């Protein structure tokens, strides 16, 4: 359901109730976001559920950028809670393909599902997996929680 700002209380009253730990309505949070008293990016921590937080954020979006055709209900936002994206306003569906197989660490052979609208991406990844498989697979090492890719080639073989 569409969220509208509440008008039955002042912003000061809403802030006082929030500080006292009293429950606020979705429209109350929308008012606080609209006047700059709360940050849109923090709604998930304030609201009773993620979908309500997304509904409030969507209502706070500039009317010229309203995501009317972007779905937001019936999605498990818990999987995107601390990762993936900030300031969530909905989700999209994308075609999915499968690349692989790819042998990992000499044992497990996996296929990689990929969702994309980029033409030939899955096919290109699939060709890369085939080349890696011809060389015996890939060996992985976990070297810490790092946000960059590291590629180290120790041996080369002709395929």
Question: What can you tell me about this protein's structure?
Answer:
The chain is 30% helix and 11% strand. The protein has five helices and two strands; from the N terminus they run ααααββα. It has a two-stranded antiparallel ribbon with strand order 1-2. A hairpin with a 3-residue loop joins β1 and β2. The longest helix is centred in the last third of the chain and has 14 residues.
Rg over alpha carbons: 23 Å
The global form is elongated
Number of strands: 2
How many structural domains?
Answer: 2
Can you tell me the residue ranges where pLDDT is under 50 for at least 5 consecutive residues?
A: none
Helix count, per DSSP? Answer: 5
The helix/strand series, from N terminus to C terminus, equals HHHHEEH
The strand line-up of the biggest sheet is 1-2
Distance between the termini: 58 Å
Q: Report mean pLDDT, rounded to a whole number.
A: 86
Strand content: 5-15%
Helix fraction, binned, reads: 25-40%
Largest sheet: 2 strands, antiparallel
Pathway: Metabolic intermediate biosynthesis; (R)-mevalonate biosynthesis; (R)-mevalonate from acetyl-CoA: step 3/3
GO biological process, one term: coenzyme A metabolic process
InterPro entries: HMG_CoA_Rdtase, HMG_CoA_Rdtase_cat_sf, HMG_CoA_Rdtase_N, HMG_CoA_Rdtase_sub-bd_dom_sf
Protein name: Hydroxymethylglutaryl-CoA reductase (NADPH)
């Amino acid at each position: 359901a569409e969220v509208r700002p509440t008008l039955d209380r002042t912003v000061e009253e809403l802030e006082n109730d929030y500080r006292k730990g009293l429950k606020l309505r979705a429209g109350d949070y929308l008012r606080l976001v609209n006047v700059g008293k709360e940050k849109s990016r923090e709604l998930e921590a304030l609201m009773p559920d993620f979908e309500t937080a997304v509904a409030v954020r969507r209502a706070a979006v500039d009317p010229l950028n309203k995501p009317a055709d972007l779905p937001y209900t019936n999605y498990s936002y818990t999987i995107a809670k601390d990762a993936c994206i900030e300031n969530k306003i909905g989700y999209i569906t994308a075609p999915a393909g499968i690349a692989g197989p790819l042998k990992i660490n000499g044992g497990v052979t996996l296929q990689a599902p990929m969702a994309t609208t980029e033409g030939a991406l899955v096919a290109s990844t699939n060709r890369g997996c085939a080349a890696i498989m011809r060389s015996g697979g890939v060996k992985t090492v976990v070297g810490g929680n790092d946000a960059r890719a590291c590629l180290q080639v120790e041996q080369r073989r002709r395929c």
